[in-house]
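ok so i was messing around last nite and threw this chain in just to see what happens. nothing serious, just curious
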Amino acid sequence: MMNDNVNIKDIYSLDNELLDALDEMKGAQETAARLPDDDRTDGRLADILALAAAADSSRRDDDVERRLQKMLAEHADRKEDTATQPDETQQTADSNTGGGWQKTWMTRMAVAAAACAALLLTMTLWKDKEAAVTPARPQPVLFSIAQPKTDVTVKSEDGKKIEADVTDDGELLVNSLPETAERIEVAVPQGERLTVALPDGSKVFLHVGSSLKFPVRFVGNQRLVELKGQAYFVVAKDAEKPFVVKTERMTTCVLGTEFNITAEGTEADNVVLVSGSVSVSASAQRILKPGERARIDAGGRFEVDEVDVTPYTSWRDGFVYFDDMTLKDVLLCIGHEYNYDVEFANSGLLDKKVHFAADRSEGVQGIIDMLNMMNIVRVELHGNKICVE
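result:
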């Protein structure tokens, strides 16, 4: 007997035998139409017609497939019966008169020809329909982040490059700079970080892609610096000279404290106070307490809320830290951190939320290995591109 689990696709194995006989059977169907009715033949022909009709339908007909399985099983049974009873079959053929055995043979040939045509049509149409509804492969989403590799640059306000030494710990000592330049600008490229030791003893941890303008010597009644990007400030106390950080959208004034500023010129700009006290001015002025964040929202409103300071201090300590952030934001931050482009093979992964932390000194490959250990996505490094499968 034939396996009950036979599938429509299994019929492909019959194609060669059916095609070989097809040319010889073309006239058999017309001959069968002129023969007397046979109930079993009519039933099989009805099944074949149903199969042909199903082939032209818009979806797969499970009932038709079951009927096809039954037909194939019956066909296998008849082959077994014929093989085990050759003499009886021959006697029956010899005893027939008036061409009865010819009718039986011609009828079976007609059924086989019709079955061949119906099956080929059914399989072809179903195959075409399955291919037609196959979803298109998602197009990759590429974020171009990488920039030509450069070193930290130090230049005067008029654009002249200044030779500066950076310690093995990645610290630029401003006291070692020539006093011929009144104000200088330090620019940190993507993939690099830098700590600036200011002449008053304050330290500024500059994040990748950030720049800071400041005087070689603080004179006057304030210590003014200008920031673009992100930086963590540890300010030396001087009650007579407030430390002022100016960005495109906000001004922060302190006497001695620690705080993080993000100043990209967007609604993400904020000031987060870690310790001490600061005054933040924008469209309004607010005094922050430790653990508070001042920011300007997308509508231009100035607001203050409470936050966990860990994400704002961890990067200063040499870690990458992401709490309940989308995979897109995490990988873009890593791309900026190490100066790599980022490509998502499936845009459906962009908004998946993750919690992730790692030591920056592990390098980009180490970070990727740790992401893969989470078994959320598969991340690989190809040249200068981080690829997310």
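not much to say yet. The two ends are 46 Å apart (CA to CA).
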